[in-house]
Every structure is written in C-alpha cells, then in structure tokens.
Write a structure and sequence with these properties.
Elements: E1 14-19, H1 26-36, E2 41-46, H2 49-56, H3 64-72, E3 79-82, H4 90-96, E4 100-103, H5 111-120, E5 126-129, H6 141-152
C-alpha cells in the first residue's frame, strides 16, 4: 500500500467496499474478511433496492435496510450505508474518505478506470481487487437462488 498523506497519518486506515449482499453467503464473508485485513475500519455501502433492480434485473430478495442490518451484525464491519440509486455515489464516498477501496473478485469494475474516476471527484484512495479465497460457483447469490428454485419449486 502507498504511504498515507500527512493529514491521515494519525487516523485509522479506512477500507470501503460496496455491493448488493442480497443473500449473505460464505463468499461475502471471505470478501469482507480480506477487505478488513487491508486496514483498521471496514465501511460497507449496500446497493439500494432500485440499483439491485437495474444491475441484477430482478427484485432484491431482502430490502436494502435488511441487508444493511445483517452486515452491521458482522464483527468485521464497522459502518454500513445504503447507497443512492444508480451508480457509484461519489458524494458519499468523499464523505467516508476511504484510504482503500476494495473491489470484489466478481465485480466488473476496472480498478485503474475507477481510480481515475475517483481522482476526478477529489478522492485519493487506493483501489485493490480482492481475489477469490477459493473459486466456487456455489458462493454466488445467483447460484443459490437457482439451487433453491430447482430444489424446492419443482
């Protein structure tokens, strides 16, 4: 990780992640645990329900408020916010003022392009992609939903 700016030297290193976290599963736990290891505080932005509909082309299983409450209960998570509808809420990211933004292994963001966009918004965070702890199709919300339908709806 790069050297912290002088104004951040005496504060905890903040790591920011974002995601849907609709059906909390082991892949999420691995991602959040690895992200927390990058700093002292882990802040999560949960996609709001409208964003889930746009990105996933389906209704969320759990509301944004329920997903946020589940995440707040996890010991590695320090703060949780619900994002604004649409894409990245740069105003919220700027208020959180992260040192690191961790991207999940299956998130489609390009780290370099994200870093450039953050700079355009005056945000000087490192962008790091978290690798899969292990590669498993089972640790995906879409696969869990599919298994539930196949097992219980036929």
């Amino acid at each position: 990780m790069s050297e912290k700016p002088p104004e951040k030297e005496n504060r905890k290193i903040r790591v920011l992640v974002g995601g849907v976290f609709d059906i909390l599963h082991v892949g999420h736990i691995h991602f959040l645990s690895q992200a927390k290891e990058l700093g002292d505080e882990l802040i999560v932005i949960v996609a709001n329900d409208e964003t889930v509909r746009l990105q996933k082309r389906r209704e969320p299983i759990n509301s944004a408020e329920e997903r946020a409450e589940l995440l707040r209960a996890l010991k590695m998570v320090d703060e949780v916010y619900i994002g604004a509808p649409g894409t990245i809420d740069y105003d919220l990211v700027k208020r959180i003022d992260p040192d690191v933004i961790a991207i999940g292994p299956d998130q489609t963001f390009n780290c370099e392009r994200m870093k450039e966009e953050l700079r355009r918004h005056g945000i000087k965070a490192e962008v790091i992609r978290i690798p899969y702890l292990y590669k498993s199709d089972r640790a995906k919300t879409s696969k869990i939903i599919q298994r539930i339908i196949e097992t219980y709806c036929e």
